[in-house]
Amino acid sequence: MNNIKRVAWEIELKVKGNTLKYKQKLDEWQWLSKQEILRLQRTKLTALLQHAYVHVPYYRHLLLENGTVDESGNVHLDRFHHLPLLDKDTIKRHFDALKSDDLDSRSPFEESSGGSTGVPIKLLQDKQFMDWSSAVKLQDDEWTGMEMGCRRAYVWGSVRDTLVGRETVKTYLGRWMRNERWLNSFRMTQDRMKEFIHELNEFKPVQITAFAENLYDLAKFIEERGLYIYTPKAVLTSAGVLHPQMRETIQRVFKAPVFNRYGSREVGDIACECDHHHGLHLSAMTHYVEILNDKGQPVEPGEYGEIVITLLTNYTMPLIRYRIGDMGVMSDEECSCGRGMPLLKDVIGRTTDIFINKNGDRIDGRMFIRLLMSSAFINKFQVVQDRYDRIKIIVDPANKKLDHYQVYSEEIKRLVEDARTIMGGQCEVDFEFVDYIESTSSGKYRFTISMVH
Ligand SMILES: [Zn+2]
After folding, report:
1. CA 356, 357, 361, 366 torsion: positive or negative?
2. Listed residue (19, 59, 33) closest to 317, CA to CA
3. Average pLDDT estimate for 252-281
4. Distance 338 CA to ligand 1 centre (A)
5. What is the Å distance from ligand 1's center to 332 Cα?
């Protein structure tokens, strides 16, 4: 039966577009040397800039003014890093000018950013982008050891993706063909988690693809209650940051290797781990990735900075030097698997995970995660900064029945003191217990949010 499904899926992909053709190219390219991959990437970047210069009003002027493209249409990549960055606000303001004048021939469609911070923005994407994105996803799956058509369970928190209440016959047919089971984790109640465990044990997926935070919650739930869970071949986490403690817990409970994937709705999947787990291989043929400091200068490998993406496949509305809103660290090491694609060492969160104190010092929000994740009485938490001199620690306790302020008064006092020290001293720290902490509208969970940017 699985073979029939795989064949049906392959036929559908062949009829619909170039996904399998692109996948074949990715298969070949992955084993090229890093130099050769970077050379090919420059060719793709040049082609995108030429297209933007000829067909996209917003860029025509900008590229010329900046010198990245000259009057004769020649591209000068040495000028590329001086192009202004593109942010969500600019996309909103220049939406029409960012459209390619030949977009009718590109099967465009509307998409919006995930909106894990702020209001989602509208974008145009096209068929070429979709086919490349699907090809990258197939390659990522293969790295985790999953073949096309194997059983896959999604523990997925985005209401839009899970199509709750809007499923059509086509949706169900597609899921059947791809052998998928969708578990909507937008709100993970205890009853929902019990249902998930039952479904996973019954469905026996080869791979679980999940929102990192949701699967971490599920893993904790299983472990605390000593429940049985089926062991898949691999777990692929996406959407949200996979902190080391989350990875360890998921791996321990599901007894399967965890592969971290980094992507977004606006630009597709950007990077994914291979089975050597030395970092995330950048999808260099579809994305050009830069990591910059707060002055817009590239940082050294090993240093963290803001991730800026140029999407090489979406000609309908080119995103060039796009501020995706995440922070990351590049690696200059080569992966022992032999693949030449450069490595992203880590994605460490949103740019708004950086806290700023009264003196203007920038504080890595992960310090709070390390502080609070090891407290046994805390089930979930969120640290919110609303002023330079005030943060709030919101806690969903593990045991809801206790008088927490009394039982844990000493520990709370210590956590508050440590949090204040992290903020550099003069800072008000409020501590509050709640019954439930909401995810963002995209379903992603935020451990830390600074609103003072
Ligand atoms: Zn590798």
Report:
1. negative
2. 59
3. 95
4. 6
5. 13
Q: Is the pLDDT of residue 341 over 80?
A: yes
Residue with tokens 């919101």: 394
Domain ranges of the chain: 16-132+279-346, 357-450
Question: Could you tell me the fold of the domain covering 16-132+279-346?
Answer: Rossmann fold (3.40.50)
pLDDT tens for each residue of 162-212: 555 566 777 777 777 778 888 887 667 788 889 999 999 999 999 999 988
| Cα 278 to ligand 1 centre (Å) | 7
DSSP 319: -
- Higher confidence at residue 9 or residue 65? 65
Interatomic CA distance for residues 2 and 9, integer angstroms: 10
DSSP string, 172-239: HHHHHHTTEEEEE-SS--HHHHHHHHHHHHHH--SEEEEEHHHHHHHHHHHHHHT------SEEEEES
For residue 215, which of 230, 235, 198, 232 has the smallest C-alpha distance?
235
Q: Identify residues whose C-beta is under 5 A from ligand 1, the ion.
A: 274, 276, 335, 337, 339
- pLDDT in the model for residue 166: 62
Asked if CATH classification 3.30.300.30 holds for the domain at 357-450, the reply, yes or no, is yes
Going by the DSSP 8-state scheme, the letter that residue 81 receives in this structure is G
C-alpha 342 to ligand 1 mean position (Å): 9
| Predicted pLDDT of residue 51 | 97
Span from the CA of 143 to the centroid of ligand 1 (angstroms): 9
Please tell me the distance between residue 339's alpha carbon and the centre of ligand 1 in angstroms: 6
How many residues comprise the chain? 453
CA of 349 to the centre of ligand 1 (A): 22
Q: What is the pLDDT of residues 282-328, one digit of tens each?
A: 999 999 999 999 889 999 999 989 999 999 999 999 999 999 988 89
